[in-house]
């Protein structure tokens, strides 16, 4: 039985280990930190009490490789799947708009969903649709010369359309300002989301903490298939002879009984144990801020006071209930706010700011003050209604998918014959996402399989 060492226990490492174990390889996964999950995990917060995620993660129906992995390990039950696309938006006056695929068949359901999106004027909705119709008219070479922002301008996407639609999609999916992000990468994901069937455009959310959603099932699956997982054991070095890794040296031992090695560590961690001047590690990173906020009252369980028939002005308490009622949906995009999303888990809400490099150095108190102002504006939630909060800064959340970088992403195969690279940053064509991580894991497994 061939043995594979997998370095790193994020989505890329766990998925490659699971696919390999399922195909009959002996797998040993080695993870530096005391936990699995990499950049996608949850933990019990001693300060505030409950289990929380390091950051809210959104998956999509078009995450085919990820969904295949979750199904393999039996974890798809831990996710909530939309039947059809539905995204709620709030503007700064707290007005709610829905972008929702209709009941018609695909692609008419998406077409009319966009046509009904009232956050935009009717003429802007037509401009938006025109953009989609022209998507396939651009060649890859043309798109590689443009940023997302330049492309949107060429296609007459004015500020209103950018703010209420494109910024969400582009900044959410690429975690990068549209003035930096590559139009090519963006075009590719638009094709995946909107042109691959009804399910591709739907949102998939973890129904539990992230570690419980997939890490535990992945670990059980790998171990049931006779694989082993070793935590708190950073890989420090390789010994290489005749273009083959012969020893993997960790903080605890030197391992030599293996056939192949997959490195699934991020770009900023590889050179600690493997140096290759041909592999570009010069990726700019982009941050994400997550605000966990606990409210004194459970927002989802508020009853909706009816205005009709009462004949009297609403009491202050009832007014508050009307405002809170806005948070009955699972999640909202905030139009023109430094906070991009609110996710609603009853009395616990999570706020997300993507592309947060400009804010990351502010103090947690300053950031909370900013979030509290936005919550009041958009959702009518007063600061006094907040019981506690926690701000999580993920500085190196993703890499920046700009036009300089996309052609310099390394391939899975390296010049070392038994060493393969995985991780969201290798050349998958996708931005820095879970799907890119899992796709890279599958690519590494396929390379080993054909040897
Ligand atoms: C806050 C936040 C929000 C995000 N939101 C989304 C989202 O909504 N949707 C989405 O698709 N993506 C999102 N992402 C991106 C997504 O989390 C990553 O793309 C994905 O998790 C990367 O997985 P990976 O396995 O490639 O790398 P990682 O998750 O970074 O895993 C690499 C692992 O390697 C380990 N390692 C490093 N060095 C060594 C060593 N020397 N020896 C052994 N082990 C080592 C690390 O400890 C780590 O566990 C988000 C990221 C963050 C941080």
What does this protein structure show overall?
31% of the residues lie in helices and 22% in strands. The chain is α/β, with parallel strands linked by helices. It folds into three domains: 3-78 and 207-282 and 402-449, 3-Layer(bba) Sandwich (FAD/NAD(P)-binding domain); 99-197; 285-399, Polyamine Oxidase, Chain A, domain 2 (Alpha-Beta Complex). The strands form five sheets. It has a seven-stranded mixed β-sheet, with helices on both faces. Strand 16 (331-334) and strand 17 form a beta hairpin. It starts with a strand and ends with a helix. Mean pLDDT is 93; it is low at 301-324. Bound molecules: flavin-adenine dinucleotide. Flavin-adenine dinucleotide is lined by residues 7-13, 30-33, 38-40, 54-55, 57-58, 234-235, 264-266, 269, 272-273, 288, 290, 394, 397-398, 423-424, 432-435, 437. Flavin-adenine dinucleotide binds next to helix 1, strand 15, strand 19 and helix 13.
Number of strands: 20
CATH topology of the largest domain: FAD/NAD(P)-binding domain
* CATH homologous superfamily placement of the largest domain: FAD/NAD(P)-binding domain
Report the span from N to C terminus: 14 Å
Number of separate domains: 3
Pick out the low-confidence regions: 301-324
Supply the CATH class of the largest domain.
Alpha Beta
Number of helices, counting only DSSP H or I runs of 4 residues or more = 13
Sheet with the most strands: spatial strand order? 8-7-16-17-18-15-19
* Alpha carbon gyration radius: 23 Å
Bound molecules: flavin-adenine dinucleotide
Structural class: alpha/beta
């Amino acid at each position: 039985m061939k043995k594979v060492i997998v370095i790193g226990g994020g989505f890329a490492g766990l998925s490659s280990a699971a696919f390999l174990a399922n195909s009959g390889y002996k797998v040993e996964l080695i993870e530096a930190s005391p936990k699995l999950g990499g950049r996608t995990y949850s933990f019990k917060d001693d300060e505030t009490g409950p289990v929380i995620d390091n950051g809210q993660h959104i998956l999509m129906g078009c995450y085919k490789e990820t969904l295949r992995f979750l199904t393999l390990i039996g974890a798809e039950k831990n996710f909530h799947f939309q039947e059809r696309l539905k995204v709620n938006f709030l503007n700064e006056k707290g007005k709610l708009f829905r972008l929702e695929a209709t009941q018609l068949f695909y692609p008419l359901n998406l077409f009319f969903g966009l046509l009904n999106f009232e956050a935009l004027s009717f003429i802007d909705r037509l401009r938006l649709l025109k953009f989609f119709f022209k998507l396939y008219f651009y060649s890859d070479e043309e798109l590689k010369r443009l940023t997302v922002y330049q492309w949107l301008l060429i296609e007459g996407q004015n500020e209103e359309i950018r703010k209420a639609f494109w910024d969400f999609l582009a900044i959410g999916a690429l975690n990068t300002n549209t003035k930096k992000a590559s139009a090519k990468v963006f075009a590719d994901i638009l094709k995946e989301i909107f042109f691959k069937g009804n399910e591709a455009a739907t949102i998939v959310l973890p129904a539990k903490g992230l570690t419980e959603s997939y890490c535990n099932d992945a670990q059980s699956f790998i171990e049931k298939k006779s694989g082993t997982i070793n935590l708190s054991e950073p890989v420090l070095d390789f010994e290489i002879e005749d273009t083959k890794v012969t020893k993997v040296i960790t903080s605890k031992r030197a391992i030599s009984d293996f056939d192949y090695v997959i490195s699934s560590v991020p770009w900023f961690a590889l050179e600690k144990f493997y140096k290759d001047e041909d592999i570009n590690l010069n990726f700019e990173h982009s941050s994400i801020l997550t605000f966990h906020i606990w409210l004194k009252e459970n927002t989802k369980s508020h009853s909706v006071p009816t205005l009709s028939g009462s004949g009297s002005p609403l009491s202050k308490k009832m007014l508050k209930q009307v405002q809170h009622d806005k948070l009955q949906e699972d999640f909202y995009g905030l139009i023109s706010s430094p906070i991009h999303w609110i996710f609603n888990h009853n009395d616990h809400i999570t706020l997300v700011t993507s592309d947060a490099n400009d804010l990351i150095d502010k103090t947690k108190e300053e950031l909370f003050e900013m979030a509290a102002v936005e919550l009041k504006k958009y959702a009518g939630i007063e600061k006094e209604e907040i019981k506690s909060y926690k701000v999580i800064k993920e500085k190196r959340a993703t890499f920046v998918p700009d036009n300089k970088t996309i052609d310099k992403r390394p391939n899975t195969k390296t010049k070392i014959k038994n060493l393969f690279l995985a991780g969201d940053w290798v050349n998958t064509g996708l931005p820095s996402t879970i799907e890119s991580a899992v796709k890279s894991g599958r690519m590494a497994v396929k390379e080993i399989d054909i040897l």
